[in-house]
Design a protein that fits this description.
Blueprint lengths: L1 E5 L3 H12 L5 E5 L5 E3 L2 E3 L1 H10 L17 H8 L10 H17 L1 H11 L5 E4 L7 E5 L2 E4 H7 L6 E6 L8 H6 L3 E4 L4 H9 L4 H5 L4 E4 L2 E2 L2 E2 L4 H7 L6 H7 L6 E5 L6 H4 L5 E5 L6 H13 L3
Parallel strand pairs: 1-2, 1-9, 2-5, 9-10, 10-13, 13-14
Antiparallel strand pairs: 3-4, 6-7, 6-8, 11-12
Length: 301
């Protein structure tokens, strides 16, 4: 059994490759919930839904958000009626969110995700990192911003000075799932707002020390492949490089996967982790995704 720690952009690309090279039923995917919140009356768990849609072959992989070929009739009508819609939610996507909101009230988030995954024909287990409400604040030169305000309303443009996120408890069973995995793959998601929240859960870092851990760097050169990870790392005085990413995982990491463009950083990363794999990590087509997934799987002892 392989466990993947995931956010909502880089790692789902890798998941597209992984589900082609291993049996999807052998995948546990623990997903960040730090950015979850209510918008327009429905519960939005953006990273979870992106993983669900990825594993169900429904993802809009132009934006890595929402459903491909979705319509926006409800969104447009709500705006016409004067409703504030910070997020542009498609009709099929909104139906998923409405159902999840209803299921959560009766069964909780973890069970809601399990029901939706089953209904979508997904055999992998998709697990929210926590069932508790969480919160993240981005401290910027424009003041303190909610995550989605920073990302969408302000287009991630303000200078980031600091980040604060709330402490939550892990979903029941997560620590044992990690301990009992043949390997854990930390995907190339934002190491600060997607992966670090999972690592901050009680028992997770200790559990990772008991299994084989492979991480893929989302940083190439001195910038993130996508999203504001580099801004967040800089704000926390973490070197914006694959070296900086490796340092975040130093206490439990066995293998670091970096891009061929970062070949010059191998020696420095070898001071942090024993094994470094250098390959193409830019996943711009399915063949590249499958190739990276196969390299990772082949590295598991």
């Amino acid at each position: 059994m392989i466990t993947v720690l995931s956010g909502g952009t880089g790692t789902p690309k890798l998941l597209q490759g992984l589900k082609e090279v291993v049996d999807p039923k052998d995948l546990n995917i623990i997903v960040n919930t730090l950015e979850n919140d209510y918008f327009s009356g429905v519960y939005v768990s953006a990273d979870i839904d992106t993983v669900l849609y990825t594993m169900a072959d429904m993802i809009n992989d132009e934006f890595w958000y929402g459903v491909k070929n979705d319509t926006f009739i409800t969104h447009e009508r709500l705006e016409e009626l004067g409703c504030s819609e910070l997020l542009r939610i498609g009709d099929i996507d909104r139906a998923t969110k409405i159902q999840k909101t209803q299921l959560m009230e009766k069964y909780g988030l973890n069970n809601a995700c399990e029901i939706q995954a089953k209904n979508m024909g997904i055999s992998s287990r998709i697990i929210p990192m926590s069932e508790e409400d969480s919160d993240i604040k981005i401290i910027t030169d424009k003041g303190e911003l909610e995550f989605h305000d920073f990302l969408i309303k302000h287009q991630a443009e303000p200078e980031v000075l600091d980040l604060k996120f709330s402490k939550v408890s892990p979903t029941e069973g997560i620590v044992d799932i990690i301990k009992n995995s043949d390997a854990v793959i930390i995907g190339p998601s934002n190491p600060i707002t997607s992966i670090s929240p999972i690592l901050s859960l009680d028992g997770v870092r200790d559990a990772l020390k008991e299994t084989h851990v492979i991480a893929v760097s989302p940083i190439i050169g001195s910038d993130s492949v996508s999203g504001p990870a580099s801004k967040f790392m800089k704000a926390l005085d973490i070197d914006v490089s694959s070296v900086g990413v490796a340092s975040l995982y130093e206490d439990f990491l066995d293998i670091m996967v970096i891009d061929i463009q970062d070949n010059d950083k191998k020696a420095e990363i070898n001071q942090i982790v024993n094994k470094v794999i250098i390959t193409n990590t830019i996943m711009n087509n399915l063949d590249a995704k499958k190739n990276l997934a196969k390299i990772i799987i082949d590295s598991i002892p």
